[in-house]
Amino acid sequence: MSSTKEAGLIEKLRTWRRDANSLHQYEAAAFVGDKVLSITSSFFAKVVSDCTDDVSDAFWLAQTYFHIQSYARAHALLTKPSYLESSYDCRYLAALCLVSHLQA
Hints:
The protein is mainly α. It is built from seven helices and no strands. The longest helix is centred in the first third of the chain and has 20 residues. The model has no long low-confidence stretch (mean pLDDT 88).
């Protein structure tokens, strides 16, 4: 698959994930978001194409996990050092997940 086709596929999956989130179909959004994160964080994606926005994809997936009250899962996803160091949004959501998990 060429890098332009792969980038187009990733954008379609991101659009699908965003639409599922906005329609409160969080299970579908989590499924698609997991696939997007797997693709964008893979070695192949970093070498072959320019689709390396995995911090944003991780945040979207963790936000979806938060909506379905999977706080521990979202926190585990966000606590990778590369996500915490590069994104204030990831830090905030990780802290919110931890507090929500302890309150549940």
